[in-house]
Amino acid sequence: GAGVSQSPSNKVTEKGKDVELRCDPISGHTALYWYRQSLGQGLEFLIYFQGNSAPDKSGLPSDRFSAERTGGSVSTLTIQRTQQEDSAVYLCASSLSSAREWEDTQYFGPGTRLTVL
Amino acid sequence: SQQGEEDPQALSIQEGENATMNCSYKTSINNLQWYRQNSGRGLVHLILIRSNEREKHSGRLRVTLDTSKKSSSLLITASRAADTASYFCATDEKYGNKLVFGAGTILRVKS
Q1: Of B82, B69, B87, B76, residue with least CA distance to B7
Q2: Does B20 touch chain A if contact means CB atoms closer than 8 Å?
Q3: Mind listing the pLDDT tens digit for each residue in B21-54?
Q4: CA separation for the pair B81, B14 (Å, rounded)
Q5: What is the dihedral of CA A70, A100, A29, A22, to 10 degrees?
Q6: Between chains, do A56 and B97 touch, taking CB under 8 Å as contact?
Q7: CB distance A42–B102 less than 8 Å?
Protein backbone atom coordinates (compact mmCIF):
# COMPACT_ATOMS: atom_id res chain seq x y z
CA GLY A 1 0.00 0.00 0.00
CA ALA A 2 0.94 3.66 -0.13
CA GLY A 3 3.33 5.03 2.42
CA VAL A 4 3.33 8.39 4.13
CA SER A 5 3.24 11.21 1.63
CA GLN A 6 4.10 14.85 2.13
CA SER A 7 3.62 17.94 0.01
CA PRO A 8 5.16 20.00 -1.27
CA SER A 9 8.54 18.27 -1.51
CA ASN A 10 10.26 21.64 -1.62
CA LYS A 11 9.06 25.08 -0.57
CA VAL A 12 10.90 28.36 -0.94
CA THR A 13 9.33 31.35 0.73
CA GLU A 14 10.19 34.86 1.78
CA LYS A 15 10.73 35.84 5.37
CA GLY A 16 7.47 36.90 6.99
CA LYS A 17 5.21 34.78 4.79
CA ASP A 18 3.04 31.94 6.09
CA VAL A 19 3.50 28.36 4.84
CA GLU A 20 1.43 25.21 5.06
CA LEU A 21 2.93 21.75 4.89
CA ARG A 22 0.77 18.71 4.35
CA CYS A 23 1.08 15.11 5.50
CA ASP A 24 -1.00 12.12 4.40
CA PRO A 25 -0.37 9.25 6.81
CA ILE A 26 -0.72 5.58 6.08
CA SER A 27 -4.38 4.62 6.07
CA GLY A 28 -5.46 3.22 9.42
CA HIS A 29 -2.55 4.68 11.38
CA THR A 30 -3.87 6.46 14.43
CA ALA A 31 -0.70 8.23 15.48
CA LEU A 32 0.91 11.05 13.50
CA TYR A 33 4.13 12.93 14.28
CA TRP A 34 5.85 16.01 12.93
CA TYR A 35 9.61 16.46 13.21
CA ARG A 36 12.05 19.09 12.05
CA GLN A 37 15.56 18.36 10.89
CA SER A 38 18.05 21.14 10.39
CA LEU A 39 21.04 20.58 8.12
CA GLY A 40 23.29 17.85 9.50
CA GLN A 41 21.28 17.50 12.68
CA GLY A 42 19.07 14.89 14.27
CA LEU A 43 15.31 15.02 14.36
CA GLU A 44 13.57 17.52 16.59
CA PHE A 45 10.11 16.48 17.74
CA LEU A 46 7.43 19.08 17.08
CA ILE A 47 3.95 17.68 17.67
CA TYR A 48 2.13 14.36 18.02
CA PHE A 49 -1.49 13.37 17.35
CA GLN A 50 -3.04 10.19 18.69
CA GLY A 51 -6.59 9.42 17.65
CA ASN A 52 -9.05 11.91 19.09
CA SER A 53 -6.87 12.86 22.04
CA ALA A 54 -5.52 16.35 22.51
CA PRO A 55 -2.24 16.65 20.61
CA ASP A 56 1.11 16.78 22.37
CA LYS A 57 2.42 20.18 21.31
CA SER A 58 5.39 20.19 23.65
CA GLY A 59 7.93 20.34 20.84
CA LEU A 60 6.61 23.35 18.95
CA PRO A 61 9.37 25.98 19.09
CA SER A 62 7.12 29.05 19.13
CA ASP A 63 3.51 30.15 18.80
CA ARG A 64 4.16 30.77 15.11
CA PHE A 65 3.93 27.00 14.67
CA SER A 66 0.63 25.16 14.72
CA ALA A 67 -0.74 21.91 13.37
CA GLU A 68 -4.06 20.27 12.92
CA ARG A 69 -5.27 16.88 11.92
CA THR A 70 -8.64 16.75 10.26
CA GLY A 71 -10.82 13.66 10.46
CA GLY A 72 -8.06 11.72 12.10
CA SER A 73 -6.14 11.48 8.84
CA VAL A 74 -4.46 14.32 6.93
CA SER A 75 -2.40 16.79 8.92
CA THR A 76 -1.29 20.32 8.12
CA LEU A 77 1.65 22.05 9.79
CA THR A 78 1.42 25.83 9.54
CA ILE A 79 4.27 28.22 10.14
CA GLN A 80 3.27 31.86 10.37
CA ARG A 81 5.57 34.81 9.71
CA THR A 82 8.42 32.52 8.70
CA GLN A 83 11.96 33.29 9.80
CA GLN A 84 15.24 32.19 8.25
CA GLU A 85 15.90 29.87 11.19
CA ASP A 86 12.75 27.94 10.20
CA SER A 87 14.62 26.61 7.16
CA ALA A 88 14.83 22.85 7.59
CA VAL A 89 13.39 19.58 6.38
CA TYR A 90 10.01 18.90 7.98
CA LEU A 91 9.29 15.20 8.35
CA CYS A 92 6.00 13.54 9.08
CA ALA A 93 5.62 10.02 10.42
CA SER A 94 2.68 7.80 11.26
CA SER A 95 2.32 4.65 13.29
CA LEU A 96 -0.37 2.11 13.91
CA SER A 97 -0.61 2.87 17.60
CA SER A 98 1.41 4.50 20.29
CA ALA A 99 -0.02 2.49 23.19
CA ARG A 100 2.79 2.21 25.66
CA GLU A 101 2.88 -1.56 25.87
CA TRP A 102 3.05 -2.00 22.12
CA GLU A 103 6.10 -1.98 19.93
CA ASP A 104 5.52 0.94 17.68
CA THR A 105 7.35 1.55 14.44
CA GLN A 106 7.10 4.96 12.84
CA TYR A 107 6.90 5.18 9.07
CA PHE A 108 8.32 8.39 7.69
CA GLY A 109 7.36 10.46 4.69
CA PRO A 110 9.99 11.89 2.33
CA GLY A 111 9.84 15.29 4.00
CA THR A 112 9.34 18.87 2.87
CA ARG A 113 12.46 20.97 2.45
CA LEU A 114 11.60 24.51 3.52
CA THR A 115 13.87 27.39 2.60
CA VAL A 116 13.13 30.82 4.00
CA LEU A 117 14.93 33.59 2.15
CA SER B 1 16.61 17.94 24.68
CA GLN B 2 18.17 15.02 22.86
CA GLN B 3 17.96 11.65 24.48
CA GLY B 4 20.14 9.50 22.28
CA GLU B 5 23.64 10.58 21.49
CA GLU B 6 25.47 8.64 18.80
CA ASP B 7 29.14 8.22 18.31
CA PRO B 8 31.10 8.48 16.21
CA GLN B 9 29.60 11.45 14.41
CA ALA B 10 31.08 10.18 11.18
CA LEU B 11 32.59 6.88 10.10
CA SER B 12 34.35 6.00 6.87
CA ILE B 13 35.19 2.36 6.06
CA GLN B 14 36.01 0.12 3.12
CA GLU B 15 33.41 -2.15 1.58
CA GLY B 16 33.42 -5.51 3.33
CA GLU B 17 34.48 -4.12 6.69
CA ASN B 18 32.20 -4.00 9.71
CA ALA B 19 30.76 -0.73 10.98
CA THR B 20 29.91 -0.14 14.63
CA MET B 21 27.88 2.80 15.87
CA ASN B 22 27.06 3.56 19.48
CA CYS B 23 24.18 5.32 21.16
CA SER B 24 23.80 6.53 24.72
CA TYR B 25 20.63 7.75 26.36
CA LYS B 26 19.56 9.24 29.67
CA THR B 27 16.16 8.05 30.89
CA SER B 28 14.28 4.79 31.28
CA ILE B 29 12.97 3.42 28.01
CA ASN B 30 10.45 0.96 26.65
CA ASN B 31 12.52 0.23 23.59
CA LEU B 32 15.29 1.59 21.42
CA GLN B 33 15.08 1.78 17.65
CA TRP B 34 17.59 2.36 14.89
CA TYR B 35 16.71 4.20 11.70
CA ARG B 36 18.58 4.90 8.48
CA GLN B 37 18.31 8.07 6.44
CA ASN B 38 19.49 8.48 2.87
CA SER B 39 20.16 11.91 1.39
CA GLY B 40 18.56 13.89 4.22
CA ARG B 41 15.07 12.64 3.48
CA GLY B 42 12.69 10.15 5.06
CA LEU B 43 13.90 7.71 7.65
CA VAL B 44 13.60 3.95 7.32
CA HIS B 45 13.12 1.79 10.37
CA LEU B 46 15.84 -0.84 10.74
CA ILE B 47 15.39 -2.66 14.01
CA LEU B 48 13.77 -2.35 17.42
CA ILE B 49 15.11 -3.81 20.65
CA ARG B 50 12.98 -3.96 23.77
CA SER B 51 14.27 -2.86 27.15
CA ASN B 52 14.28 -6.48 28.38
CA GLU B 53 16.35 -7.71 25.42
CA ARG B 54 20.12 -7.65 25.24
CA GLU B 55 20.81 -8.51 21.63
CA LYS B 56 18.90 -8.71 18.38
CA HIS B 57 19.81 -9.66 14.82
CA SER B 58 18.30 -8.78 11.48
CA GLY B 59 20.22 -9.85 8.39
CA ARG B 60 23.60 -8.10 8.52
CA LEU B 61 22.51 -5.96 11.47
CA ARG B 62 23.24 -6.74 15.09
CA VAL B 63 21.97 -4.52 17.88
CA THR B 64 22.91 -4.73 21.53
CA LEU B 65 21.34 -2.96 24.47
CA ASP B 66 22.84 -2.43 27.92
CA THR B 67 20.22 -0.78 30.10
CA SER B 68 22.60 -0.58 33.06
CA LYS B 69 24.91 1.63 31.00
CA LYS B 70 22.05 3.20 29.04
CA SER B 71 23.77 2.41 25.78
CA SER B 72 23.21 0.54 22.55
CA SER B 73 25.33 -0.40 19.60
CA LEU B 74 24.50 -1.10 15.97
CA LEU B 75 26.86 -3.37 14.06
CA ILE B 76 26.64 -3.67 10.29
CA THR B 77 28.65 -6.62 9.06
CA ALA B 78 30.21 -7.00 5.60
CA SER B 79 29.33 -3.42 4.69
CA ARG B 80 28.35 -2.41 1.17
CA ALA B 81 28.50 0.90 -0.63
CA ALA B 82 24.69 0.98 -0.45
CA ASP B 83 24.94 1.13 3.36
CA THR B 84 26.22 4.69 3.02
CA ALA B 85 23.69 6.78 4.95
CA SER B 86 23.05 8.49 8.28
CA TYR B 87 22.05 6.22 11.14
CA PHE B 88 19.96 7.40 14.08
CA CYS B 89 19.03 5.78 17.33
CA ALA B 90 15.69 6.70 18.85
CA THR B 91 14.45 5.93 22.30
CA ASP B 92 10.85 5.29 23.18
CA GLU B 93 10.77 6.90 26.59
CA LYS B 94 9.00 5.08 29.39
CA TYR B 95 7.13 8.17 30.50
CA GLY B 96 6.81 10.08 27.26
CA ASN B 97 4.71 10.12 24.16
CA LYS B 98 7.34 10.27 21.53
CA LEU B 99 10.53 8.88 20.10
CA VAL B 100 13.58 10.96 20.91
CA PHE B 101 16.25 10.90 18.24
CA GLY B 102 19.96 11.42 18.52
CA ALA B 103 22.07 13.51 16.17
CA GLY B 104 23.07 10.50 14.09
CA THR B 105 26.20 8.88 12.70
CA ILE B 106 27.14 9.51 9.09
CA LEU B 107 28.47 6.27 7.59
CA ARG B 108 30.39 6.25 4.35
CA VAL B 109 31.30 2.92 2.80
CA LYS B 110 33.94 3.21 0.11
CA SER B 111 33.98 0.70 -2.73
Answers
A1: B87
A2: no
A3: 999 998 888 889 999 998 767 789 999 999 999 9
A4: 8
A5: 50
A6: yes
A7: yes
